[in-house]
Amino acid sequence: MNQDQLKQAVAKAAIDYIQPKLESDSIVGVGTGSTANYFIDYLADIKGQFDGTVASSEASAERLKSHGIPVYDLNAVDQVVVYVDGADETNPQRMLIKGGGAALTREKIVAAVADEFVCIADGSKWVDVLGAFPLPVEVIPMARSHVAREIVKLGGSPVYREGVVTDNGNVILDVHDLQITDPVDFENKLNQIVGVVTNGLFAARNADVLLLGTENGVETK
Ligand code: 5RP
């Protein structure tokens, strides 16, 4: 199977995983990216079996609505039973790098609220040590240079993602040259820099379940 087929396979596996947990009043959290898009398309097939969704990006909200799936403001819901989203990297502890699609802040918020976080990823995302994929950091625009200098002090090489404005009106620095051996510590250190909104390490709140698409099928980690 090619990478796209693996993404489809894990998206379908996520439907099979969440379907028994859904009730008529359930709210499903929905992530962002090409793997999440496959999930959204499959979710349309079972849209009568839950109440609605909260989306981690405007793009995902639009795709959900195009399928006739209700999308709620997160402030309007009491509970998100499950959040399903892709990742740019995952380690064996299901700690992730996310934000390749610049949606990391809303993704982290929905993941924090959700009772359960299910990550869906093709096998190319599996690593022993996080950091080969440049770590996205969402930054308040006026703090961009300050944050970049502080990141250099932490050993990273930040690159401004030109032309990208997040759904929250901020900018992204992609941090290269990292080998993140203590992801929780590094996530916290980045959060301490004034001007950082969110960083793409999902370590303090890792995924509860990882559905990984491999040549041997979808493995549950
Ligand atoms: C978006 C994300 C995505 O989950 C991540 O970039 C993976 O994307 P894809 O499923 O297209 O490989 O974090 O901000």
From TrEMBL:
Its EC number is 5.3.1.6. InterPro entries: NagB/RpiA_transferase-like, Ribose5P_isomerase_typA_subgr, Ribose5P_isomerase_type_A. The active site is at residue 107. Substrate binds at residues 32-35, 85-88, 98-101, 125. GO terms for molecular function: isomerase activity. It is an enzyme of class 5 (isomerase). It catalyses: aldehydo-D-ribose 5-phosphate = D-ribulose 5-phosphate. The keyword Isomerase applies. It comes from the Bacteria. Pfam families: Rib_5-P_isom_A. Keywords: Isomerase. Pathway: Carbohydrate degradation; pentose phosphate pathway; D-ribose 5-phosphate from D-ribulose 5-phosphate (non-oxidative stage): step 1/1. HAMAP family: Rib_5P_isom_A (MF_00170). Homodimer. Belongs to the ribose 5-phosphate isomerase family. NCBIfam families: PRK00702.1, rpiA. Catalyzes the reversible conversion of ribose-5-phosphate to ribulose 5-phosphate. This is Ribose-5-phosphate isomerase A. It comes from Sessilibacter corallicola.
